[in-house]
Amino acid sequence: MKREEVRFGYEVFDTAESLQADDAALLEAARKVTAKAYAPYSNFLVGAVAILNNGETVSGTNQENASYPVGICAERVLLASAAMLQTGIPIRTMAIAYQNNNGESDRPVSPCGMCRQYLAEYETRVKQPIRLILSGMKGKIFVIESAGLLLPLSFGGADLK
Ligand code: THU
């Protein structure tokens, strides 16, 4: 028997002002775009904005539905849009923020399991890690070098061969 271990590190910033300028601007855009979320059931408005290798930005917000499972997270709205509008162009960095209308929005939340799967496949597809910036409307900010780090031992297309 041998034991394997998976670890990853990430950066924690106390305020947006301590981020590098382009990251601070991307986070600000993600916070702003939360206003475009359609989240009448959860009151949890998520906004994501990504900057691509070609300098273009793509955004997404969560889109809920009265038939709850039909709803889509902000990250997957963004990724599907990017795949269509900017086909094949890798995403350099994605900032994800949220406004919780039922509580606080003062700490980072990280993508749900389904979005982690989608993010991981996007990275594989365009052969570049997606850097993540996670935060609420205020408070600490997490910076993670690759979304795939959030999904160790992931299942992927190679497993189907
Ligand atoms: N949600 C996202 O859009 N992204 C996340 O990373 C976590 C959750 C959405 C799904 C749902 O509309 C609401 O937030 C509450 O779960």
Walk me through the structure:
The protein is an alpha+beta fold and 161 residues long. The chain has one domain: Cytidine Deaminase, domain 2 (3-Layer(aba) Sandwich). Helix content is 24%, strand content 22%. The protein has 3 helices and 6 strands; from the N terminus they run E-H-E-E-H-E-H-E-E. Strands 1-6-5-4-2-3 form a 6-stranded mixed sheet. Strand 4, helix 3 and strand 5 form a beta-alpha-beta unit. The chain starts with 10 loop residues before the first strand and ends in a 17-residue tail after the last strand. Bound molecules: tetrahydrodeoxyuridine (THU).
- Multimer state: single chain
The Cα radius of gyration reads 16 Å
Strand order of the largest sheet: 1-6-5-4-2-3
Q: In angstroms, what separates the terminal alpha carbons? A: 27 Å
In the CATH hierarchy, the architecture is: 3-Layer(aba) Sandwich
CATH superfamily: Cytidine Deaminase, domain 2
Tell me the major beta sheet: 6 strands, mixed
Number of domains: 1
The beta-strand count equals 6
CATH topology: Cytidine Deaminase, domain 2
Which consecutive residue ranges, at least 5 long each, have pLDDT under 50?
Answer: none
Order of helices and strands: EHEEHEHEE
Number of helices: 3
Summarize model confidence as the mean pLDDT. 97
CATH class: Alpha Beta
Structural class per helix/strand content? alpha+beta
